[in-house]
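Quick one: structure for this chain?
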Amino acid sequence: MAHFKSYLPDLTMREQSVTERVFEGLVARPDDAVLIDGPSGRVMTAKTLMTDVKRLAGGLQAAGFGKGHVMALMAPNIPEFATVLHGGLWAGGTVTTINPTYTAPELRHQLNDAGATWMFVVESLADMARAVAPETGVTRIVVIDGDAPSDSLAALMGEPLEAQAPIDLDRHIALTPYSSGTTGLPKGVMLSHRALVANIDQMLAMQIVVPGETMVCFLPFFHIYGLQVGMSSFLAGGARLVTLPRFDLEMYLRLAQNHKSRALWVVPPVALALAKHPMVDQFDLSAVEVVCSAAAPLGADIAAQLGARLNCVPLQAYGMTEASPAITVTNWTAPRKGTVGQLPPSTLGRIVNIATGEHLGPGQEGEIWTKGPQVMLGYLNNAEATAETITPDGWLRTGDIGYFDDEGYLFITDRLKELIKFKGFQVAPAELEAELVTHPAIADAAVIGQPDDEAGEVPVAFVVLAPGADLPAAEVIAYLATRLASYKQVRKVHFVEAVPKSASGKILRRLLRDQLAP
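Got it. Here's what it folds into:
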């Protein structure tokens, strides 16, 4: 059977937890600032991070948290995110990261599905956490930046736990970030320590980090891109991070200028701003050598404009939460126009004919499959979705369409999956549709993505009204505003007589896209 492999030799698998792997990049530089809070300039050294992780793990274990327990972490990008995340992992538990822009219904769903009993939040989110907790299994809420005598991060610190709590590196679930996968509602992605460590080593083998450099990271840590490519790889690779709790173009540019950032890791809307926004000319970005975009496709024209404007190498990478996340990475010393890179070490790729299942060769287009140690264990509480996504022999079906060239560079041309990519965030049409039909005036609904120059895609709803109902489009949009996070909101509403469906009841989204075609 035809398959593609990395140009690099296979990895030697480390017998380490992901926290031990990150510590490996910290121990030789105890006094270095490794995490800097962007807005305030507050510094966390390598020694402080390691000490606080061990003290938190000790406090957690003393309070009864450990193997078999799940901690929910809901916070913006701040240095203490790393402390809490790795404290939970060092204590032997599982961490599920939650989008801090979630509404109460979204938060409730993830807490219940993940089985969380502990929750760490920042003060601004504490009231919502306390309101939702009684409807979930959460019995302990800790405020990261609080000062309560019992339920604050500072109060929970205990005697240091000097060694990683015993875990099975291959089977223990370290993280359960949530992803919609190739279709459907958000699902918990079960990532082992082995998968996370392997993917860190794979990315470092592709030279994504230069020791001593500084990355300004607005990529949210709750998302696997910011967590693994940003936090884990840069700390493990001997670099440092400046954290931004939310994206602000002026602050991002100022911090990149002041810290003389070599590499900017972005999503397509930010790449577009770097290529076109007049504000960019007010800052000295001459230290920037490479800009890498991921999480959604970046147009070739924008990439070219970006490279010319900043005199840098524009790159793309490709991954999924289900692959921890890197599937292909472009080595910045060997760029190729239009590609999302090459397979990292210990990773295989296949291109599969959608109709026949035939495995295709170079230059032939089909569904992208991948296999490697970074692939997830499966979806939490969802064996059916797991079986649809991972083949019996361990291949991850990505739902994306593309081809490899003769030198193993991957090009993505389309996607099978229904996900909408809004500014790099996944939006599952099924989730929006499920919310829309709860409105008493809506009989049926379908959602698709419409191409958008700034956002990549925007959700557009096709709505069938109940007999006799009269519902303006603005009210449809307002209805979702209190029920779903801001990036999941529909931007346009079209009223239709019926949603086109197949004989089996599947929405024929292609026909809806045809209605939007110019």
